[in-house]
Every structure is written in C-alpha cells, then in structure tokens.
Specification:
Elements: H1 16-30, H2 42-48, H3 53-65, E1 69-72, E2 76-79, H4 83-110, H5 114-123
Antiparallel strand pairs: 1-2
Length: about 150
C-alpha cells in the first residue's frame, strides 16, 4: 500500500489493527481495491508502516471473518466477490440509522431548505473519500507471506 492510499498516521484512541481494517474497507468502497485484487502482504504492510506483523494479521483476519477478504493458501489474501456490494449495503444502512437522524436534526435546527442543500451539494467535492481513489496498492511479495 502506498502512502497516498493509506495515511501512515495512526489515531491513538482506536486500535491500529482496527484502523488498518477500516482503511482497507475504505479502499474497497472507493474502488482502489476491487474484487479479486490481492491485498499487500502482511510483511510488506508491516515494513511500510513500521507495524508488528501480528497487528497487520489481526486487521486482515477481521476482514476474513467478515467475509470481505479470502485467504488463498500460498498466494495471499484477496478481496472477496461481492465485498463492495456488502459493504455498501452495510454502510448505507448504518448511515440511515446512525448518521442521518443527526444530519436531519441539524438541517431542521438550522432551517435549511431543499434549494440551499442542493446548492451546497453541487458545490461539494466530487470525491467522497480522501485522496487515493483509483490508485492501486503494491502487491509484491504476496507469495512470501502464504500464512497471512
């Protein structure tokens, strides 16, 4: 993974393995990682970001447990078929249940109307995710890490 895709800064309030998992999820959602794409090896991520390989493995294992990534013995880990659609469904549902009520309450509280919201939406940046969309992660040394 290159630094344009994954910011090497870590938030001390969230476990690093969880942040790593969340960054891979964001890469899948934004299309930087597509179905069937190989994830960078545990070894290369650990080296690139100066992380303990067990931390990287734990983040990757969460993705496997969520069936977003599949292990291929001797080859590495790959984005599962249907991963992006499953994530979109889950994220949409989470947004509607958790975020939208807060956004709607703010809109009501501020008295914003549909025209103002449409104007603001038209002026908003086209890319909803941080920079890095479309960049491809490094996949070298995949065969060196068969036991991700």
């Amino acid at each position: 993974m290159n630094s344009k895709i994954m910011d090497p800064q870590w938030d001390d309030s969230v476990p690093i393995y969880r942040q790593l998992r969340d960054r891979v999820v964001a890469m899948i959602l934004e299309g930087a990682l597509k179905e069937g794409d190989a994830l960078p090896s545990v070894r290369s991520v650990a080296a690139d970001f100066r992380l303990n390989p067990l931390t990287v493995l734990k983040g990757y294992q969460q993705l496997v447990d969520e069936q977003l990534v599949e292990k291929r013995r001797g080859l590495g880990m790959f984005v599962s078929s249907g991963a992006r659609q499953a994530l979109l469904k889950d994220e949409r549902q989470r947004f509607l249940e958790e975020e939208w009520p807060k956004v709607h309450a703010t809109i009501q509280r501020l008295g914003l109307n549909a025209e103002e919201l449409q104007r603001a939406a038209a002026a908003a940046p086209a890319t909803p995710w941080p920079q890095g969309a479309g960049a491809s992660p490094a996949t070298k040394d995949q065969d060196d890490d068969s036991d991700h």
